[in-house]
Amino acid sequence: MKLTLTEKDLKYIWHPCSQMKDYEELPPIVVDHAKGVYLYDTDGNRYIDVISSWWCNLLGHCNERINNAVKAQLDKLEHVIFANFSHSPAIDLCEKLSKIVPEGLSKFFFTDNGSTAIEAAMKMSFQYHYQTGNPQKKKFMALSDAYHGETLGALSVGGVDLYSELYKPILLDVIRIESPDCYRCPYQNQRETCQADCFEHAEKAFARHADETCAILIEPILQMAAGMKIYSPVYLKKLREFCTRYNVHLIADEIATGYGRTGKMFACDHAGISPDIICLSKGLTGGYMPMAIAAVTNQIYDAFYADYSEGKAFMHSHTYCGNPLACAAALEVLNIFEDENMIDKAKGKAVYFNELIKQALSDSRWVGDIRQTGLINAIELVENKADKKPFDSRHRYGYQIYKKALKKGVVLRPLGDVLYFNPPLIIEKDDMDFAVRVCAESIEEVLGK
To answer: How many CB atoms lie within 10 A of CB 207?
Structure first.
């Protein structure tokens, strides 16, 4: 008996970030093709991809310009070792990036995914301090509820127990700082006007541990996997000051927040600060190809520059780092941003989208908080709005709403009981209207009015 594609999938594939037993109830949806903000499955159903396929699809599926750039590169060079060899797509990409990344970031180190960019940044920071007379700096600081990836170093600095709790016996010992929580602010401040009183937790950590700390890793403005927790740029400004004062590197994880997602090209731009290292991926290639970059200052780069015999080289590599096809896609993404004024266009759409969501959901008894930056909007569902009491996680209401929305043609993958929209920047008003209407209907069908 011939198996269907879904049956073959379940027979052979172990999907990421999934409890495969759930697939007995909700089998995998086999996507046949995609265009713009829409996915089309093998049964002819259409789904609006308002989560950008894990936050990476930046300019729509099968974007004609990116397609053509990759096709043209494919006929010239598909891959070459990136040690002692180079190619024009990588060179041109870095030249363009040097003009738009935060000031002072001037050298670009390629890896092949976000987690490995974080690993590279952590190793760079440790080795820099070791080679510049501070071998005691061996630890890292990170926020609670942080997410930086799932390789062991990146998982160590992450703070979401869902991903890391089981592996703590084999993870690095990290100095954990209580993160901002603007929805449940213990200082009774408002997100838009606060002066980051919660930075006192970081101040105490620096006072106690700065001498042994290489770097602090942070998701600027927005802790995404934590439930799209948005905090004040003032926090970043204070953090930059303390990192400079105490000779601790500031590593900005812009893997998910970069490339216009928060309303500016990089989330650090909201605070007007420059990190010592910035990690980029996801939107870097428009979601087309696996690639990541750790961009650093000349000061960090120079500490590794010596005769090979001195043993100061950064001995870190990946087979596919600097891949020409990925570089061609990434270069075309930047060309599109420049030619089509994508940041300003997205800003206009963001205002409409947020107002639409507020009109549809603010009055719901189950919606505790609606938070937004750029086109990213998050809806936190609560059992009681008055005291902001969360639902018992065992109910899995977010997952139930996700299933309802799927049947109506919207991919609304939740973070616990936080529903969110993080669409491609090309989304149009009609698509927003449809997605928000389905979201509201699905919440009501699961939780009632």
So the answer is: 10
Q: Is 279 helix (H, G, I), strand (E, B) or coil?
A: strand
Q: Provide CB contacts within 8 A for 19, sequence distance 6+.
A: none
Residue with tokens 């941003």: 337
Kindly list the averaged pLDDT for each block of 10 residues, start to end, along the chain of length 449: 94 93 94 98 97 97 98 98 97 98 98 97 98 98 97 96 93 97 94 92 98 98 96 98 98 98 98 98 97 98 94 94 98 98 96 98 96 98 95 94 97 96 98 98 95
- What CA–CA distance (Å, rounded) separates 128 from 135? 9
**If DSSP codes are grouped into helix, strand and coil, which group holds residue 298?**
helix
CA dihedral 308, 312, 313, 315 (to 10 degrees): 120
- 294, 122 contact by CB (below 8 A): no
What value, to the nearest 5°, has the Cα angle with vertex 281 and ends 128 and 371? 110
Quote the CA–CA distance of 291 and 144 in Å, as a whole number: 27
Element (H, E) at 362: none
- What's the CA angle centered on 183, arms 346 and 267, to 5 degrees? 35
Tokens of 357: 């969501």
